[in-house]
Amino acid sequence: MVTSETLASTALMTAAVESGTFILRRARKADLPRILALLADDQLGAARESVDDPAPYERAFEAIDADPAHLLVVGELNGDVVATFQLSFLPGLSRKGSSRAQIEAVRVSEVLRGQGVGALMIEWAIEQARGRGCSLVQLTTDKSRVAAHRFYGRLGFVASHEGMKLKL
Q1: Higher confidence at residue 78 or residue 101?
Q2: Which positions ≥6 away from 89 have C-beta within 8 Å?
Q3: Is residue 137 within a helix (H) or strand (E), and if so which, with residue range?
């Protein structure tokens, strides 16, 4: 029987980077503390995330892990989780009934930035979207993340829409 733990141990992608071999794989529940540390490791994340109570994060992980339309991915280097993102596949009626891929919560450890790890992850996600027949890949990034805007622009993303959110 194939379990989520078995799937999580299977490399989705491997690549040589300056610091060693970078491995992309499905996240395991045991990765949650490191994923949360990555999410909280900047000014915006530090204000949004609170790991005092892990229960909401565990519930979210279980929901993501159980749904084949969502994939929580981590990047490993020398056995340490150093990167993460979520990839979701959304069916839609617009664009002739095509699906789109949504990339969320992209984080790379500060020590690895500039080594191409983020580009490897996003390029892998784009290929997954193509493989699932998606007509586009979309993501949002906070307006204050100017470096992220340049990064996504270099990868071909275009700021074509103005995003809006309503906090609940």
Answers
A1: 101
A2: 69, 70, 99, 100, 101, 102, 129, 132, 134
A3: strand 136-139
Phi, psi (degrees; rounded to nearest 5) at 52: -60, -35
DSSP lists the bridge partners of residue 20 as 17
Give the model's confidence band at 46: pLDDT under 50 very low, under 70 low, under 90 confident, else very high: low
Residue type, 138: Q
How high is the pLDDT of residue 6? Answer: 45
Q: Which two tokens stand for residue 67?
A: 């749904």
Give Cβ neighbours of residue 26 (< 8 Å, ≥ 6 apart). Answer: 4, 7, 8, 10, 12, 65, 71, 72, 73, 74
Tokens 């700021």 -> residue = 159
Q: Is the pLDDT of residue 88 over 70?
A: yes
Grade residue 2 by pLDDT with cuts at 50, 70 and 90: very low
| Per-residue pLDDT at 165 | 84
> Is pLDDT at 32 greater than 60 in this prediction?
yes
Helix (H) or strand (E) holding 24: strand 20-26
Helices (H), the chain: 4-8, 32-39, 43-48, 55-66, 94-97, 117-131, 146-154
Residue type at 52 in one-letter notation? D
Sheet strand arrangement including 11-17: 11-17, 20-26, 70-77, 80-90, 100-108, 136-139
